Amino acid sequence: MRFTKMHGLGNDFIVVTADTWPQEAPELARRLCDRRFGVGADGLVFLLPSRAGDVRMRILNADGSEAEQCGNAVRCVAKYYYERISGAKKEIIVETGAGLQSVRLETDGSQVESICVDMGRPILEADRVPVALEGERVVAHPVKIGEESFRFTAVSMGNPHAVIFVDDAAAFPVETWGPRLETHPLFPNKTNVEFVTVHSPRELEMRVWERGVGPTLACGTGACASLVAAVLNGTADRRARVRLKGGDLEIEWREGDDRVYMTGPARTVFEGEWNEGSG
Question: CB 1: neighbour CB atoms within 10 A?
Fold first, then answer.
């Protein structure tokens, strides 16, 4: 099986093209994403034929669970599609588990330099995120774990996020609290968890615990959710730079159409061939 290793700000993926979805995909994801016995990645991405868009993306986390959406993976898919399949199409539609996403590419010759993704309207209703609470929006709601308590804002960008504002995101013990919040009973489908520091209305810093993966260097949907949560809490403008461990993303939540736009890079690392007898 041929594959391409790609990343968006260090959030890395194994990208494979296929005509159909393989039934053994979850086990394949666990084997391929293993960083000691496999290729190593945060997720396995399949590019499949699409009737609704230019290409269909299905993504499995490193633990074999399927994610509805992934902003960094969408950028990788768009770059791959432009450079390997379409050849010249700078505006494409990617079909994901969260719906259709419009993507615009900035290129330098045959190479993609920057990718802007229309991530859609944020979902804020508690039952649609989902969160096991009543009400239209969950903003700065308390959650207690043992003797520690946090306040989270719930946002779905096609996948669930719990955004928690902290004094120093870079030093926050993500690996201590991330897994406990991911599986908290408040989140029936589990949740991604973002720990965010607002340095100014135009600059946020974020660390993330990704559902089904663990700590990663970047999360595109998490960056989008973080900006939306900061706006809802009155601490950020609708357009800001979100600083992640792997680099920066430009995020805008437009008031005119209520849609979130994410702009950032994607990179190809290497190509290879997976031997089915290995792993």
Answer: 14
